[in-house]
Predict the structure.
Amino acid sequence: MNKPWFAVRKELSSRRRTFLAVMSFVLPLLVWSLFSYVPFIWHPQVEIIEAGEVDYFRTGMLVDRAIFEQEKETMRAEGRELPTGTRTNPVYLPAPHQVATALYTAFTTEPQRRNEKWLHESLADSIQVIFWGFFLSSLIGVPLGILAGTYVAVSRLTEPFVEFFRYLPAPAFGALAVAILGIHDAPKIAIIFIGTFFQQVLVVANTTRKLDPALLEAAMTLGARNAGLLFKVVIPGIASDLYRDMRILLGWAWTYLIVAEMIGASSGITWFITQQARYKNFDNVFAAILIIGIIGLTTDLILAWLGRRLFPWQRTARA
Amino acid sequence: MTHLALPSYRDQSPEVADRFARLKERPVILEVKGLTKTFDTSQGSVTALKDISFRTHQREFVCVIGPSGCGKSTLVRTLAGLEDYNSGEVLLDGKPVHGPGPDRGMVFQGYTLFPWRTVKKNVMFGLELAGRSRTAAEEEALQWIDLVGLTKFANSYPHQLSGGMKQRVAIARALANQPRILLMDEPFGALDAQTRAKMQGYLLEIWKNIDITIVFITHDLDEAIFLADRILVLKAHPGEVQELIEVPVPQPRSPSQFLSPEFLATKRRLEELIHPPGAETEEGINGDRLNMVRMVPVNAKVESVF
Ligand SMILES: Nc1ncnc2c1ncn2[C@@H]1O[C@H](COP(=O)(O)OP(=O)(O)OP(=O)(O)O)[C@@H](O)[C@H]1O
Ligand SMILES: [Mg+2]
C-alpha cells in the first residue's frame, strides 16, 4: 500500500499516474493564477481608476507603480485631487480567466479587417501546410531512410550529403522558396519539408540499423532473401519504432510552421498571433498559443492510442 | 573416486555396435571437408576453425562440444551459411552450399522469434516464403505447433511466452521448412536446469518422430551424452577436431541412464579432453585460485562460515 513515490524505474499505480498527469497541468496553472490574482505578488503596474488632477492620466490607463506613487506625492504636496488605481500586471500577462474567455471569443469574434481571416480559418490553413509538408517529406524520407539503414551502398551515397544539408537552417531558404514557388502555400510547405526531410532520413536510417541482426539471420536461415528480408523482416520489425519517430518528427514540423508562415503572404495561426499582438490583444495571443498546444497534444495522444492498437506486440508501447 | 569400475568409453555392447554400423551405412547428409576459417580483426587474424572434417548421416544426432571460444558457434554459423569460410568444403547431400537457405534450419541461443508475429505467424514465416497459400501454410504451421505442444499459445505473441516455450516455437519454425538438417547453437543455454531437462526430452521425442538430422552445439557434457549418437569434440586456438566419440549409451535414451557405466565412462573421457590436467596453468591462471584477502571484521557476529 505505502509504496514509495520515487523508486528508480518502477511503475506507479494507475491512480498515482493519473494524479501526477493532472498535476503537471495544475501546477503551472497554479503559478499563473498566483501571479494573476494575488495583488501583492508581482503586479508592477497600476491601472488608473480616477485620474485625479494628474493631467496625463486617463481612466483605465496602465502606469508603472513608481510613476504612480511619484505623481500621487506631487498631487498630495500641491494639495490637489489624488489619483486612485489598483495594482495590476502588464498587458502581456493576462489572467487565466481572460485567456479562457478569449479561447471562446477568439472563435466568435469577426476579424477586424475584411481581408483578415477568422481564427478557425487561420488554423485550418496552418494544419494544411503542416500536413502537406510532413506528408511529402515522409513520402520520400521514410523509404530513403529505410533503404539507407538496410543497404550500406544507399547509406554511403545519401547520408554524407544529408548530414551536411541538415545543418543548413531551413528558414534560410525562405526567400529562395518564395522566388521559386510564389507567395502562397507552396513555399511554406517547402520550408516544412526542408526542416523535416533531412532529419527524417537520418532518424529513420538509424532506427532501421537498430533492428536486431539476429532476426535477419534467423529469417535468412528460413529462406528469406533481398526483397523478402526487406518487406517481411526489416519493415515490420522497425514499424513500431518508426511510428514513434514520426510522432517526434511531427512535433518538429510544428516548430518550423512559425518560420514557414512568416514568409511570402503571411497566413495561418502565426499570422493571427502576430496580428493580435499588434492590437495588444494578448489574451487572444495566449489563446492561440494554447490552441496550438492543445492540437499538438491531442494529435499525439490519438497517435499514441492508435500505436497501441497497431502494435499490440509491443509491451512497452506506453510513451 | 575410483575409476576402476568404469569400462572404456570405446566399449560398445553388441546392440550399440550394430546400431553404429547401420548408422554409418545411411546416406551422408552433411559432409565437411577441411573447413578453415579465419577472422581478420584490427588486432590481426584469428583462426577460428582449422581443417575441420566430419560427416553426418541421415537422422543422426551429432553434438559438438568444446571449451568456450573454440569456434563452435562459428562452425554452425558457417554450416548455416551465415559466415563464409576461407577454404574447405561444406556439402549438403553431396552438393556444395553457399549462403543461408531453408534447407538448413537453425535455432539460435538467443531468442530470435519475430516479436511482431504471433506464434502461428512465426511458424508460417518460412512456409509463406516458400509460396504456400495462406490456408495451407496455416494448417501446416498448426501441425508443427501441435508437435511442440503449444497449440494453446498459437495466437500469443513471443513476449507472452517463457524462455522454454520460445525455443520450442523456434524449433517448430525451423522444422516447418522441412530442412535436411537442423543446426542448433546452445538452444537451451539460457534455460534453467529443470526446463532444460524437459526440453531435451521434447527434442529427442521430436527427433524420433520425424526425418531430421541434428547438429547440436552445447558446452554441457551431460546434455551432449544424453542427446547425441556421436559427439564431435573441438579444441581451442585454433578450433580443430580433437575426437569424434561414438556414445556407447544405448538408444532410446532416458534420464535413468545418467548414472549408467557407459554414460560415466563417456563423461570421464570428455572431461579429459576438454579440461586436460594442467590446462589452467598453461593459460597462466594461477592454480585456479582467487587472490582473496579476509574482509570480515574481527567483531563480526558471524565470524566464520563453518
Ligand atoms: N565476428 C568475429 N570477429 C572476430 N573474431 C571472432 C568473431 N566471431 C568469433 N570470433 C573468434 O572466433 C573464436 C571462436 O568463437 P566462437 O563464438 O565460435 O566460439 P564458441 O565456441 O561458440 O564459444 P562459446 O562457447 O563461448 O559460445 C573466438 O576466438 C572468437 O574470438
Ligand atoms: Mg557460441
